[in-house]
Design brief:
The chain has 330 residues and is of the alpha/beta class. The protein contains nine helices and 17 strands. It is globular. The two termini are 39 Å apart.
Length: 330
């Protein structure tokens, strides 16, 4: 299923969303995260005692044992919530399957299994049609990154990275950046203004904390690619009026890929096709980095790409692309 996504041209600001069902509510996830969709077979699950309440156990999947999460319990979406189709054992609109399904996903270099009540279908949409969560709902406690209206129903896009990080925190901090102690290096890093576009509030704060610990304290953050695009447009006009380069005020851009309004690939394509910003280093920092996504990053002219949560390597890439270190292979 995920292989069909390669048909999406890089930087067109489109995404394929898999709509799945929990209770009577539709939820969505980027198809690129999906490795497999299988019927739920309790016999393949080994229960784990004293685990997180939303963890069912471990699932035998091919050659691996994956942690299996009850997504309905985690999102507080009961299987029977008064919707007659769901109570009859069917997802809404009569699509999908009556049996529970397992979504095997891979992101942040980790495979995880999620139990859902059903699957509807894949929707190809523009990121512009995806509404960011309101400021009230986009706090670090939110488990959603946006919403989409399809055929009169609301599909909530789930922040899968946040869920997995909270349930399976072990190993997340092995990538933490050490506090910079070299005063000269700290001064040089602080002199570089970095833009960060990341739609997940919890990850935006986490990335910012890691970069500031490493000395990149002149950091400006944006909740999606459109907000960052608007600011770069403003900075471009300001630089033109002053007869100077955008690089005088911005040293590099770090961007997630999945974001409402404008995704990171479309943002990068605009940066690289705009004369005043084409020399601005762009580093894609995403949970989706794999061979297919690397090809998309290269197609839009990204200078580097790295998988979350490799913060130490991210700081090293910033050093290379802002002139503090010689680029690897130079």
């Amino acid at each position: 299923m995920a292989k069909a996504s390669i048909l999406l041209e890089s930087g067109t600001n489109e995404v394929e969303v898999l709509e799945f069902v929990l209770g009577g509510q539709s939820f969505g996830v980027n198809v690129l995260k999906i490795q497999a969709i299988e019927q739920y077979d309790p016999k393949r699950v080994t229960r784990i005692h004293l685990a997180h309440p939303s963890v069912i156990g471990t699932l035998r999947f091919r050659e691996n044992c994956l942690t299996m999460i009850d997504l309905g319990k985690e999102l507080d979406a009961s299987e029977h919530d008064g919707n007659p189709d769901v109570e009859a054992g069917k997802p809404r609109n009569g699509e999908g399957t009556a049996a529970k399904l397992v979504l095997v996903m891979e992101f942040n270099q980790l495979k995880t299994a999620f139990l859902v009540h059903g699957v509807n279908r894949i929707h190809r949409v523009s990121w512009e049609s995806i509404n960011p969560m309101s400021p009230f709902l986009s706090s670090s406690e939110s488990k959603f990154t946006g919403s989409l209206q399809i055929e009169g129903r609301e599909i909530l896009l789930v922040d899968m990275e946040k869920i997995v990080t909270e349930i399976l925190p072990r190993g997340q901090f092995q990538y933490s950046v050490e506090q910079v102690t070299d005063e000269e290096l700290s001064r040089q890093r602080a002199s570089r203004t970095i833009l960060l576009a990341e739609d997940s509030a919890v990850l935006r704060k986490h990335v910012a904390d890691e970069l500031r610990r490493g000395g990149y304290t002149s950091l400006r953050t944006f909740a999606n690619g459109r907000e960052c695009y608007d600011e770069l447009t403003r900075l471009t006009a300001e630089a033109d009026a002053a007869g100077r380069a955008v690089s005088d005020s911005v040293a590099a851009l770090i961007s997630d890929i999945e974001m409402p309004a404008m995704d990171g690939l479309a943002l990068c394509r605009w940066v690289k096709q705009t004369r005043q910003t084409q020399d601005l280093p762009v580093i894609m920092f995403s949970s989706l980095i794999n061979d297919q996504i690397v090809g998309k990053c290269q197609a839009v002219g990204a200078d580097a790409y790295i998988s979350k949560p490799q913060f130490v390597e991210l700081v090293s890439l910033l050093d290379q692309h802002t002139g503090l270190l010689e680029p690897v292979g130079a």
